[in-house]
Write a structure and sequence with these properties.
Elements (H helix, E strand, L loop, with lengths): L1 H39 L5 H26 L7 E3 L1 H11 L1 H6 L2 E7 L6 E3 L1 H17 L5 E9 L4 E8 L6 H4 L17 H11 L3 E7 L3 E9 L3
Parallel strand pairs: 2-4
Antiparallel strand pairs: 1-3, 4-5, 5-7, 6-7
This protein binds adenosine-5'-diphosphate (ADP) and magnesium ion.
Adenosine-5'-diphosphate (ADP) binds next to α5 and α7.
Protein name: histidine kinase
């Protein structure tokens, strides 16, 4: 009976995801079809229509790229990595986006950090997701603190603390549900994908947030000696 229950739970999650995907991808496709019709009918200003069509196609690509990460069951490569290297690469990658949004990223790492066993690309994806969310939560700019320290049980604690819009209490539980987004150009998949990757690495993630004050995302990961 227990197995049956697990299976039916899985089915409903899969069904929920399928419905979400169908909905999210149907919208841009309907728009593209409409614009093709308009162009066929011989409108004069095609340039704008082509631009909207390509941005809608990009949106479909973005959704599919994030979903493909979910399709990967386990770590593809598992190597000993220093979290500082991963953070340095990711913050460099996002530097221009941070500067454009007046966000200063301050990284503080304890000196003695054990390495973690991880798929570097997947873990970078996680950090990118949380840093982007933090930048997007501070439309007027501000400071994003990234802190790394060792816990007593040899796990690593990685914190992303922003001073942005925060998340209302009743919404925090919705994080990780597919396609929940408050952004015009959001996919609502970043949180779900990141959580899945962290769980694949035997880690955990918790979110602490206060509306209009900010958000802290805490990731715990096992280390190797
Ligand atoms: P997306 O960024 O595409 O919207 P996510 O899964 O990354 O999707 O995030 C889902 C939603 O959670 C966001 O739309 C936003 O409302 C909220 N959120 C996530 N991170 C933060 C944060 N640091 N501060 C405020 N809200 C956040
Ligand atoms: Mg996001």
């Amino acid at each position: 009976a227990e197995q049956l229950l697990i299976n039916s739970e899985k089915l409903s999650v899969a069904g929920q995801l399928a419905a979400g995907i169908a909905h999210e991808i149907r919208n841009p496709i309907t728009a593209i079809k409409g614009f093709i019709q308009l162009i066929k009918s011989g409108v004069s200003d095609k340039k704008l229509y082509y631009e909207i069509m390509s941005s809608e196609i990009e949106r479909i690509e973005m959704i599919l790229n994030e979903l493909l990460i979910l399709a990967k069951p386990q770590m593809v490569h598992s190597d000993r990595e220093d979290i500082r290297n991963i953070l340095a690469q990711v913050t460099t990658l996002l530097e221009s986006q941070a500067i454009l949004n007046n966000v200063e990223i301050i990284t503080e790492c304890e000196p003695d950090l054990s390495p973690i066993l991880c798929d570097q690309n997947q873990l970078k994806q996680v950090c990118i997701n949380y840093i982007k969310n933090a930048i997007e939560a501070m439309p007027l700019g501000g400071v994003l603190n990234i802190q790394v320290k060792m816990l007593n049980d040899n796990r690593l604690l990685l914190r992303f603390i922003d001073h942005g819009c925060g998340i209302p209490e009743d919404i925090v539980t919705k994080l990780g549900q597919p396609f929940y987004t408050t952004k015009e150009k959001g996919t609502g998949l970043g949180f779900m994908v990141s959580k899945k990757i962290i769980e694949n690495h035997n880690g955990t993630v918790s979110v602490f947030s206060k509306e209009n004050e900010g958000t802290a995302v805490e990731v715990c990961l096992p280390t190797v000696s």
